[in-house]
Amino acid sequence: MKNAKNRVKIHTPYIICNDMMYNTWEEIAENVSDFSIMTNSVANNRNPFGSADYAKNRNRILF
What we know:
Blueprint: E1 7-11, H1 19-31, E2 34-38, H2 48-61
Parallel strand pairs: 1-2
């Protein structure tokens, strides 16, 4: 991902990150013009742990 020039697309059913992952995504978002992450809605995600982490850290993901 760090070597991408134009596009990085991530598709995952849920997001559970550590600080290194958040920092990497932030770096990529600053350097790649087309960076996006697609995940399930918190409202219909059947993984309560994944949903809870996303809800708690949403501001860190939506930079």
